[in-house]
Amino acid sequence: MSTACTALETEEHQALRAAVAALGKRYGRDYMTTVIREGKHTDELWAEAAKLGYLGVNLPEEYGGGGGGMAELSIVLEELGAAGSPLLMMIVSPAICGTVIARFGTEEQKRTWLPGLADGSLTMAFGITEPDAGSNSHRITTTARRDGDDWVLTGRKVFVSGVDIADATLIVGRTEDARSGKLKPCLFIVPREAPGFGRNQIDMELHAPEKQFELVLDDVRLPADALVGDEDAGLLQLFAGLNPERIMTAAFGIGMGRFALSRAVEYARTRQVWKDPIGAHQAIAHPLATAHIDLELSRLMMQKAARLYDEGDDIGAGEAANMAKYAAGEACVKAVDQAVHTLGGNGLTREYGLASLITASRVARIAPVSREMILNYVSHQSLGLPKSY
User: Fold this and answer.
1) What is the pTM of this model?
2) What integer pLDDT is reported at residue 274 of this predicted model?
3) Nearest CA to 12 among 90, 73, 72, 82?
4) Pairing state of beta strands 168-176 and 124-127?
5) How far apart are CA 299 and CA 307, in angstroms?
6) List of E strands, 92-196
7) Measuring CA to CA, which residue among 360, 341, 348 is closest to residue 81?
8) Which one, of 130, 372, 347, lies nearest residue 260 by Cα?
9) Separation between Cα atoms, residue 89 and residue 98, nearest integer Å
10) In this structure, is the dihedral angle defined by the CA atoms of residues 53, 57, 59 and 65, taken in order, positive or negative?
């Protein structure tokens, strides 16, 4: 099935897409389901993707990365997803944390973290969501106060992916502005074994190699250099990480949708109940064609968002990244649903590997921001309508 993107991508991007697709094919859905069933992590795929330079393709060359951007990194995640073996931590470690450190970190932070994030030897999680704040980042209550030269963090986070395998977590906290007394967002690198940094795994119905955690920060003492970037530029730094998160979540959804659709198309071509294969019937063919169109349209918006971001247009990228994430989430859920429906009872069997995606596909609609909050963003920012909150 054609990916229909060759006219818009450079030869280098096409080559990257083909190479990553070949890597994904060597692992595939069977690898992912085995890892999940055995309670393991995707260590082998992560290591090979890192060795081939795919994990750090967006990070600066001087720190061991590929010198590309979100355009390249989103290709990697999409193609791994299309093969049935997406790496969720790519959204968090190189895309969010790597980008924030590369753009705003000190020279020491860059030297300490970026080479490891690029070659896969270091992994970083990202903690922003809180139990009582949800999508409202202005209600974040995790606070950081100065104590001499140190920072002391107190608060809670939920739905933080991969903390058990991450060497550190980039925590979004709030500090008090000495001039105004108002709290402003700031980002801190918290090592996994820092005293007072506790984690509890959340019991999820969603089955994935990457586990979800609740974090408790009980007077976690950090050195001054744990603060990323300028204390007065926290909001800019925060959104510099959230735009890549939305672009990569779109890639995650598009890849998953493509995988499900390819399984359904293959089945519809060969499954014969009456005279012709079931794919000859428009009731089967047209919904699959619609799913394909929606996925292609989602990729176009994702490519636009990636280009704007890589060109340094944070405002334009914010709008496009939100739209891409919304469109990809909708397209992913519909593609998975139609794929399962196409296979009928076989769509619910372990053999075909689609049933588990019914739950997984909802992630693209819910995280990292709900579709309703994206509609709020578009209605306020793009259309200029008044806020309801």
Assistant:
1) 0.94
2) 81
3) 72
4) parallel
5) 12
6) 124-127, 143-147, 150-161, 168-176, 183-191
7) 360
8) 347
9) 12
10) positive
Give me the residue label for tokens 């190479």.
Answer: 19
For strands 150-161 and 143-147, give the pairing: antiparallel
For residues 91-107, one letter each, b for 16 or more C-beta atoms within 10 angstroms of the residue's C-beta and e for the rest, the string is bbbbbbbbbbbbbbbee
Mean pLDDT across the stretch 309-327?
A: 96
Note the pLDDT of residue 4: 54
Q: Is 36 exposed, middle or buried (0-12, 13-18, 19+ CB in 10 A)?
A: middle
Quick check: 275 pLDDT over 60? yes
Tokens linked to 297: 């349209």
Residue 323 has pLDDT above 90, yes or no: yes
Q: Which amino acid is at 350?
A: R
pLDDT (0 to 100) of residue 122: 98
Is pLDDT at 178 greater than 80 in this prediction? no
What letter represents residue 164's amino acid?
D
User: What tokens does 269 get?
Assistant: 């071509």
Q: Strand, helix or coil at 88?
A: coil
82, 20 Cβ separation under 8 angstroms = no
**Distance (Å, whole) CA 7 – CA 20:** 19
Write out pLDDT tens, residues 87-140.
999 999 999 999 999 999 999 999 999 999 999 999 999 999 998 876 666 678
Amino acid at the residue 143: T
2 pLDDT above the threshold of 50: no
DSSP 167-183: SEEEEEEEEE-TTT--E
**Mean pLDDT, the chain, whole residue set:** 93
Q: Please report, for residues 270, 271, 288, the alpha-carbon distance to residue 279 in angstroms, rounded to integers and kept in the order given.
A: 8, 8, 9
CA dist 227 and 190 (Å) reads: 9
Which token pair is 343?
A: 């296979």
**Cβ 190 vs Cβ 171: under 8 Å:** yes
Q: Please enumerate in sequence order all residues whose Cβ is within 8 A of that of 2, keeping only pairs 6 or more positions apart, or say none.
A: none
61-65, 142-146, 198-202, 254-258: least confidently modelled range: 142-146
